[in-house]
């Protein structure tokens, strides 16, 4: 074997080894990212199960196996009750919902308000509705549970849907079906009660 062939074989071997290490590194990173974690405490689990049930009623089949939910103080810049953390471009990335344990958030919420907050955050993390929808219906109510403007959605009353007149909250539970229809289908038309 001449010196040119020897040098060529050494360079080829070096390239193959380097490529092998890079490939091994990339595969190990992919395996790490592909390992989904499901860690939903007992307090939040009924809302995740109800979310899947409501989706199925509307023809949307969800398998949620990549979700972590936890209580965390998330009022770093502005006061908020919930936050979905994920990388939007990568649906395989670990989805994480952080709920503010503050008494004005989860602490004193009714079951309906806890559901609304969890459904809003699940809308971001699971349905991929990463943007808020602040449109209003003809009667002035917000058109979606995915709005960012009305904290009254999450107060301790049983006012599930967004409603600008809180004195009528207890009478507004009939609006829940529309808001859930819209959550799972953004093309849901405005309901009759909003005209």
Verbal overview:
The chain contains four helices and four strands, in the order αβαβββαα. The chain folds into two domains: 1-35; 38-194, no CATH class. With 195 residues, the chain is α/β, with parallel strands linked by helices. The chain has helices spanning 3-34, 45-57, 111-125, 176-184, and strands at residues 38-39, 67-71, 82-85, 95-99. Helix 2 links the parallel strand 1 (38-39) and strand 2 (67-71). Helix content is 35%, strand content 8%. A four-stranded mixed sheet has the order 1-2-4-3, covered by helices on one side.
The computed structural class is alpha/beta
Tell me the span between the first and last alpha carbons: 88 Å
The count of strands amounts to 4
Characterize the quaternary organization of these chains: single chain
Low-confidence stretches: 15-32, 154-168
How much of the sequence lies in strands comes to 5-15%
Largest sheet: 4 strands, mixed
How many domains make up the 3D coordinates? Answer: 2
Helix % is 25-40%
Q: Order of strands across the widest beta sheet? A: 1-2-4-3
Task: Write the element-wise H/E pattern from the N-terminal end onward.
Answer: HEHEEEHH
């Amino acid at each position: 074997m001449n010196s040119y062939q020897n040098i060529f074989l050494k360079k080829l071997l070096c390239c193959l080894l380097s490529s092998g290490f890079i490939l091994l590194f990339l595969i190990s990173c992919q395996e790490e990212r592909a390992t989904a974690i499901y860690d939903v405490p007992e307090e939040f689990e009924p809302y995740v199960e109800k979310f899947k049930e409501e989706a199925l009623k509307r023809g949307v089949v969800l398998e949620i196996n990549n979700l972590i939910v936890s209580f965390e103080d998330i009022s770093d810049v502005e006061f908020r009750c919930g936050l979905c953390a994920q990388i939007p471009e990568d649906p395989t990335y670990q989805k994480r919902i952080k709920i503010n344990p503050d008494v004005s958030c989860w602490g004193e919420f009714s079951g309906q308000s806890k559901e609304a907050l969890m459904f809003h955050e699940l809308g971001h993390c699971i349905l991929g509705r990463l943007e808020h929808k602040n449109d209003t219906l003809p009667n002035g109510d917000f058109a979606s549970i995915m709005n960012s403007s009305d904290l009254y959605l999450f107060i301790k009353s049983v006012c599930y849907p967004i409603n600008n007149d809180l004195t009528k909250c207890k009478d507004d539970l009939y609006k829940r079906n529309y808001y859930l229809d819209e959550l799972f289908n953004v093309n849901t038309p405005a309901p009759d009660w909003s005209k």
